[in-house]
Amino acid sequence: MANILVVDDEKEICLFLRHLLSDKGHIVTICTSRQEFDQTKNDGTFDLAFLDVRLPDGNGLEILKDLKSIQPFCKVVVMTGYSTVKTAVEAIKLGAYDFIEKPFDDIGDIEQLTERLLTDGAVPSQDHVHDLAARIGCFIGQQEEMNQLFSLAYKFAQKNVTVLIEGETGTGKEVLAHFIHEASLRADYPFIGVNCGAISEHLLESELFGHTKGSFTGAAKDRKGFFELADKGTLFLDEIGEASLTTQVKLLRVLETGEFMKVGGETVLRSKSRVVAASHVDLHNAVSKGSFREDLLYRLDVVKLTIPPLRKRVQDIPLFIEDYLRRHGFKLMFTEETLELLMSYNWPGNIRELVNVIKRAVALAEGETSIITPEHLPQKITQHAPGVLETAAAISPAVPKSTGFDSFLDQWQQEIRDMWKSEDITELQLVLDSIKKLETETIQAFIDKSLRKTVGNRKKAVEGLGITMRKLRYYLNEKK
Length: 480
Known about the structure:
This protein is α/β, with parallel strands linked by helices. The protein is built from 22 helices and 18 strands. The chain has a five-stranded parallel beta sheet, with helices on both faces. It has a five-stranded parallel beta sheet with strand order 9-12-15-8-16. A two-stranded antiparallel sheet has the order 4-5. It is globular. The chain starts with a strand and ends with a helix.
């Protein structure tokens, strides 16, 4: 049994929710105005609240702030019509857990949502969001704005609403769209992406809606379009701002009615797919310039998610590099100086540019060294940060705080000690394998240390180690 608050000026909805929730054994308190809420808010503790965002004598968002300040542990669900879904987005940013649209389509959804929110551990944690992102190779990082962005995307993923993603080129708009698809109830259906700016106007219409045999030169047979192929899945329209005005008209019809016709066709088809659109340009500015339809923007801009550029989250660059190297199986390390240079660069190409820089560095280092130094970076990065190398070297002369070798030694010693103290007879081969592993790891650790000390200069490294260059290559390539 839980205490549930309902705030809505429509008495029919209040009576409906009271009847529905009371039958489940819950105590329901009804408020039909802001005034009634003010008189009731301090009367008791509420476990859950259903809150309308529009009241005749108050703003639902202000009530939400008030309620969360008084009872921060009360879970809030906002109730909204289609025209106020954008308000629901703001409500979730202010602490609401979810929203439901009026009129209610399925009573069972309300019952399931109520029980889910009242069950301990039912609310997805930030770890759950990160786990899903990691599973599909999507990096979030530790920056607060990115974590809020993905939490918001996760909450709206399971709603049947159109999502508009804005962000500079290379910020990862398609990656976020894929995350939304995987977090949605459509995850078992297709995810199809199309770049509206990379296809000519005539071909784009055919790609989106399909065509019939003979509808144009080269149309040798009927062909399904992306709206039809996406079925009940997600259709990602990248660079939607590049679509022609003619195509925009047809996209508007699909979003409004779910209906479309193939090029050259006469039969009306229905689309069950969900649209996620993206643009690197400000579509509101495009509307003012006449290159984008205002009515289409209204249909697309139901839930808008904006991805921050990489230059605003450079502190996550070392974590991104570590994640990228791990996922691709590269046993490499970037020196502190190299990371300093990467973090001081402006990154006009964002994550896409960073990935290309990492790939370039890996290719240059492959077969030569396991340490990525500034020598492996393109000139455009090193020339934009003069003095970074000298400053970083003065603070920390190229030797990392921890190589992990100390922990390996502790573990190895414990394993050998366990073998020695065991009452059973230990196979000698196990001992020899352990000693061999110690030799390999020790040699590699001292080589890595020398390369860090010389900032990747192999000639100086071999002089200090007292070995030949050929021997160094052997240890780097064969002994790994």
